[in-house]
What we know:
Layout: H1 3-13, E1 16-19, E2 32-35, H2 38-53, E3 65-71, H3 75-79, H4 84-93, E4 96-100, E5 109-115, H5 118-132
Antiparallel strand pairs: 1-2, 3-5, 4-5
Amino acid sequence: MKGERIKNITNNSGARVSIKSDRDPNSVEVEIELQGNEEQQRDAKHLIENIINSDDDYVSVMDDKSLITVPRILVSTIIGKQGERINSIRDSSGAKVSIKTSWDKHSDDVKVELHGNKEQRRDAQRMIEEIVNID
Length: 135
């Protein structure tokens, strides 16, 4: 992994990622240590697996992020009672979904950040669009 990828994994997951320094330079295997809470480690592992399973050796972890814009007035509809709807979107799609309400408090819109592979992000976006009826 390149240093930039490790930095992106850390920024996107919140987990600390380190690669064992005394590894054999001729080996294709790498030992990676993840530090953080369970969710951070799970997110970091997912991002690493996306890199490993990618057909493109130059994939960037940042390619695992999408932003969509939704009307601010519909944020509570997306979240649902006690977070049920947004948690359902997360569980069904496998994507990590974050609503960025503070990006511009004077705007009528908010950004929804989707993290995951292309299919997960697409599924989460489709579910959100169905909720807010965006075409």
